[in-house]
Amino acid sequence: MQGKRSDLRAAVEAALGCEAEGLEDVRSEALDYDAFLAHRTVRRIHGRARVDGGCRPWSLIEKTTEGPELAERYLLDNGAREFAAYSSGLLDGLAPSVRAPRLYGSRAGDGGRLVLWLEEVAHDGARPLDAVSLLAAARDLGAMAGSWHRRVPAERWLFGGWIDRHSQPEAVPAGLAALSTVNREVVALLGTRLAAGRALVAAQPRVRAILESLPQTLCHHDAVGANVFVSSGTTVLIDWESVGPGAVGADLASLLFSSVRRGDAMASVVASVLDSAVSAYTESVREQDPSVSAKDVRRGFDAAVALRWKLIADLADAAERQRPIRRGSRPDEPARESLGELVALADLLLDAAHRALDH
User: Fold this and answer.
1) Is 221 within a domain?
2) Are 104 and 190 in the same domain?
3) Residue 145: burial class (beta carbons within 10 Å; 0-12, 13-18, 19+)
4) In terms of CB atoms within 10 Å, which end of the chain has fewer, N or C?
5) Tell me: the pLDDT tens digits for 248-258?
6) 193 assigned to some structural domain
């Protein structure tokens, strides 16, 4: 316990930029973060530090991943990847307008337990993300993509399975069954989207080939709205557990498509700014590396969206079972509104797939 307290004190001193004589009124609050994954906790810790005869308030985020005796392999890999990303210095100097939360301290404990003490970041805009925040984040993600083109790191701990994560080949049999339904209510809801969904499943090898042929860069791979903080003119991305190589445009697909899927943005807002967001991302990519073409950026974005065929299968399955389909960040959203958002998102998905494959 003393070691943990000492580590926390060192982290607080790093946050304050000075030595502390001691900590007082230390309190913690659990944050709602992937609660379905046991053996990882994220807490906001705050209190006061005795400095030069007075007290200064402080706060930081403590992120803990338990060791292999408790945590499952997926969680261990993610926790170790983020720990390595911070420890290696990879997250220093990501791009002119993109950064990770500042690291104030870390500890690899007995039994494989990993702890990070990180800067607490505030978002300047609205949530769900509004048009202004989406455009700002798109611009800054483009700057990161352009900055890392031609110099993608090759460390073994980087995440390399992003295409399979989104295309979910293990879900194809059940997905095709859902998309082949003759249930009248499902057909009335989704209509020609069902056949288009089946065609998109069949086209997944082509989608993969497109993405693997495009310029590669360093990606966050989970740049959904909940992980995006626009702060003082800079985009701060939290949760670097999936950092790794990927096609140019991949992070923009997470921002614009996956944010709606999760409830971190609204489909109508994304539709209204989509072309502008792609343009902003493209301009920033090319400012950093003019060798990347606008055509490649657009195709990378469209193909990365096209990986997400399973949305249509999920809609079909939920409708056939007469179960509401929810968006994770908005559990209290009325079921009809969630359904409307996701059907609109399915149309954006199919439009992107058509563009990506129609070459």
Assistant:
1) yes
2) no
3) buried
4) N
5) 999 999 999 99
6) yes
